[in-house]
Design a protein that fits this description.
This protein folds into 2 domains: 182 residues, NAD(P)-binding Rossmann-like Domain (Rossmann fold, 3-Layer(aba) Sandwich); 119 residues, no CATH class. It contains 14 helices and 8 strands. The protein has an 8-stranded mixed β-sheet, sandwiched between helices. Strand 7, helix 7 and strand 8 form a beta-alpha-beta unit. The longest helix is centred in the C-terminal third of the chain and has 24 residues. The radius of gyration is 23 Å and the shape is globular. Bound molecules: nicotinamide-adenine-dinucleotide.
């Protein structure tokens, strides 16, 4: 299947994620069938779609006419067979229960034309957990959106043991075509990449709170006004580079590496030296050293704009 062959999209599950995923496809011009188990849920999903579109128009992201067109691209049904017959690419966003996803994937596999691609929005499961009975192993993939899925740009894309490179590539291109940025996972891992990273921080925050190091409110404030404030510009790979750590004296770096390798962080000395060996040579490991000054300036400009917005919001 080529990207042009995807003409109709199906979304199963119209809750928090499903209605936003459907909206994202609809905004990109795809006719979308949204399916759930009863009409009340579907009506509520349509209301949420309208609310989201109204906000986009209010914030001048799109024109009113575009919003009307996007809303017109979404139809709803409780009939999974109808969705199966009519969709070239289906993503499920139903309850995060392995057995439910297994049953749904098997039903879609039996009902859909052979070329239809089946995707899952699972947060923590992997295809090997629930899709092993599916016959079209080459045409299944995870596209993991982040709430709110019609706004957050990154989507993790992950295959299973049988996913073909064509399906994987097509899923990535479909994400790009619908305004998303694919984050390419090379192998299955429970929680994928980003939820594992988020959970590592949450885990530590909970420990610090439970130990009484700071109040829940101050931990939250600390995240949002420090590392979280910088995060639109730097993630954990870039952070130490842009902080200029590669210019630190060797003994200080060694001290740091020792701390990182300590038992509580569970890192092997080998792993630490792998990421730190460039620092020992006086070079950043992630960034281009020739771009360092430019990147620092870009970051500072970006942060100043965010700071202005913060103060503007405080005054309002
Ligand atoms: N909420 C988030 O922030 C978030 C973020 C990323 C991924 N996810 C994942 O997305 C999926 C959905 O999460 P959610 O938060 O939107 O859940 P939700 O409870 O808001 O919505 C799930 C919807 O699926 C419907 N449903 C359940 N079984 C169904 C079936 N067999 N056929 C049709 N519809 C069915 C339910 O009626 C419900 O409306 C989960 O796998 C979750 O892990 C959630």
């Amino acid at each position: 299947m080529e990207i042009e062959d995807i003409k109709n999209v199906g979304v199963v599950g119209a809750g928090t994620m499903g209605h936003g995923i459907a909206l994202n496809f609809a905004l990109a011009g795809y006719p979308v069938i949204l399916c759930d188990i009863n009409d009340d849920i579907l009506n509520n999903a349509l209301k949420n779609v309208q609310k989201a579109l109204w906000l986009f128009v209010e914030e001048k992201l799109i024109e009113k006419a575009e919003a009307e067109k996007a809303a017109g691209n979404i139809s709803v049904t409780v009939d999974l067979e109808e969705l199966s017959r009519k969709s070239d690419f289906i993503t499920e966003a139903i309850v995060e229960r392995s057995e439910d996803k297994r049953q749904l994937f098997n039903r879609l596999d039996s009902n859909c034309p052979p070329e239809t691609i089946l995707a899952s929005n699972t947060s923590w499961l992997i295809l090997s957990d629930f899709a092993s009975d599916v016959k079209r192993q080459d045409k299944i993939v995870i596209t993991h959106y982040f709430a709110p899925p019609h706004i957050v740009p990154g989507v993790e894309v992950c295959g299973g043991p049988g996913t073909s490179p064509e399906t994987y590539d097509l899923a990535c291109r479909l994400m790009e075509k619908t305004g998303k940025i694919p984050i390419r996972l090379r192998k299955e891992r429970t929680g994928h990449v980003i939820n594992r990273l988020q959970d590592a921080m949450r885990h530590e925050a909970n420990i610090l709170w439970a130990e009484g190091v700071a109040s829940a409110e101050d931990i939250e404030l600390g995240i949002v006004t420090t590392c979280g404030f910088r995060m639109p510009f730097e993630g954990s790979m870039k952070h130490f580079d842009i902080a200029g750590m590669w210019r630190w004296p060797k003994d200080v770096l060694e001290n740091y590496a020792e701390k990182e390798a300590n038992e509580s962080w569970g890192l092997s000395a080998e792993l630490v030296s792998k990421t730190r060996s460039r620092y020992a040579e006086g070079r950043p490991w992630f960034m281009d050293p020739d771009q360092y000054e430019n990147e620092v300036e870009k970051r500072d400009r970006d942060l100043i704009r965010r700071l202005k917005a913060l103060y503007r919001n405080k005054k309002e």
